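Q: Predict the assembly, please.
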Amino acid sequence: MSGFPDLTSGNRPVGVVSFAQHDNVRREGAHNEVEMLMPVVAEVFGNIGITKDNVGFICSGSTDYLVGGPFSFVAALDAVGVWPPRAESHVEMDGAWALYEAWVLLQEGEIDAALVYSFGRSSPGNLSEILALQLDPYYMAPLWPDPTSLAALQAQAMIDAGLATEADFAAVAARARRSALGNPKAQVAYDRSPEDLLTEEYEVAPLRRHALPPLTDGCAAIVLAAGDRAYEWCERPAFITGIDHRTEAHAIGARDLTHSPSTKLAGEKAGVARSGVDVAELHAPFAHQELILVDALGLGPDVDLSPSGGALAANPMMSAGLIRIGEAARVIWSGRADRTVAHATSGPCLQQNLVCVLEGV
Amino acid sequence: MSERCAVIGIGQTVAKSKREDVSIAGLVREAALMAVEDAGLTFADIDAVVIGKAPDMFEGVMMPELYLASALGAVGKPLMRVHTAGSVGGSTAIVAAHLVASGIHNRVLTVAFEKQSDSDAMWALSVPQPFSSPLLAGAGGYFAPIIRAYMHRSGAPRDIGMKVAVKDRLHALKNPYAHLHLPDISLKMVEDSMMLWDPLHYLESCPSSDGAAAMVIGSERAVAQAESDTGRRPAWIHGMAMRSEPTSFAGRDQVNPQAGRDCAADLYRQAGISDPRADFDMAEVYVPFSWYEPMWLENLGFCAEGDGWKLTDAGATSLIGGGDIPWNCSGGVLSSNPIGASGMLRFLETALQIRGLAGEHQVPDARRALGQAYGGGSQFFSMWVVSVDKP
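A: Predicted assembly structure:
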């Protein structure tokens, strides 16, 4: 046991001590959400030799619209097995926000550990149509704008503002998919040059296939532990030294899509710039969004960006953000990094963003 | 809880079948703005927003908090969205209060809503799912057999539920925000209404409402400021608890769920409650179907198991009848049911009572109150205790 880092947010050191994720696949046809999740929950506990009896709080993230029925979190919770009854909560958000809720509760000192999980399958429905239902129901949703078209508007705005070129998008995608070759959980990984990627047809101009995230079925789980408990379960916990999240307006026309003021503010509150960053795991579903995030977080050229391949390698809805936190913790456990940044996003064109700074001692 | 916190602002819309004059954003903003102004604040003074509602399919908007960010003044702030089934209004208030209790924020706005007229809740509850039985009968059909089990177990006379239905509707006549105002309500009127799910008559069931509820929860510092700015006292939070249990397994007691008893025990430990009937001056409890009053009287420890119906029968829970422990003075869920907001309305009404602002349905000198919400198949519980006294 070797002490705790200085905290930017909160007053109690809380560490990520275990992480597990399902294989990210295009279509997990034979297994439903619960069947995907159960081995992952077993693994996240098994990794550190604990059971659900060791956590004082359970918090999950999922959304009914992917399942196509109400109360999708209930079946998962039933399977996790809340008996005897447990303190439990659920957000209709990416699991990164479920982790935030658990972190808040851990700050108060009544509990020492929490289980966080999230799940989502894109395969049962048409994700482009489903995500259109996330938009303003009176003025936007009736037009059925799909997420790729909205992202393309954002990418075009960057080009028009002279902030980036299509070659920059291709460079991001080439690096991410090459990094993904080292990630056994990745769904899309390859070694191709940016020049080669630029020969692809447009999906929605100026975005070609490489700049788009894959459609993914997946789920993930994390165990958080506070104070000394973190060291009981993990040799080198990844302590959350800063965590914050912010939202922007929903209306696309009300925002400067080429910048992410919400990420910038969350990064400042989380203390990203307080010291050097070794690794940043960014939840940038579209290639150009990584450029916006790097700028908003002030990450320099020496930062290792999304070594897992990020959301371009696998983009399980509701889990891709939580997975970024897990990946940013893993490189601290292994000693490969001392200070990392994880980012999660939600909503069209990076509307809502969470930034989490992790440090090992 | 580490930091003291209290309710310093309250807002709610009038509940009604169809709010066709406002969008979803207009509905939530109406309640939110009222709460913020009640606290002597503007949206600029709010640090974070926590919003809750029941399943998104009830309106047909996926994760509507994204679309509502501007209407709630949340731009540039943390915005969270809670969904814990029917208990969600209570859970949402608790998540918001923890943001203050943990010392992270100074003032948090919490909002819950349902605009049932924008979609069809019965449809949303009944969408067929692979390998699972649909709830084709809606919530009433689900709970009726559990109610019959309670009647069998406790030996309660058949008219107890009807008495609750009358009592809560009489309370609602004193609450201008309540959806149902039935001045002629009587046992005969309830008995003559259509039998929906035996033993539940039409008038023993909650309505479908459009409505929103909002509160501002503040730190000790924010409380002092609000008190001096508005002259209205806070409702201090003395305890908060949530518990969940599985939907079904052999031996699960659905009449008197363990999660509810555990949740109350944890809450009472935090708030120093030893005798709920004596220690509380009033309670707002989630009673969407009449018989849940006697069932929750037992589950919450206001009497011994099997005796809940006797309190109801004796008028102990009636404000108008001068009962010693008035329940649901607002009219309760039986009189207004904007589903996602129904739990928050329970919590909000306790704060309104403690602040002495409940108007005609005010319990004289209410000093300590219990708010409870439940959801799912009676497996999700959220509760809090608020008091005039600083903890």
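Chain B has two domains: 5-120+208-230, 137-207+239-387. The domain at 5-120+208-230 of chain B is CATH 3.40.47.10 (Peroxisomal Thiolase; Chain A, domain 1).
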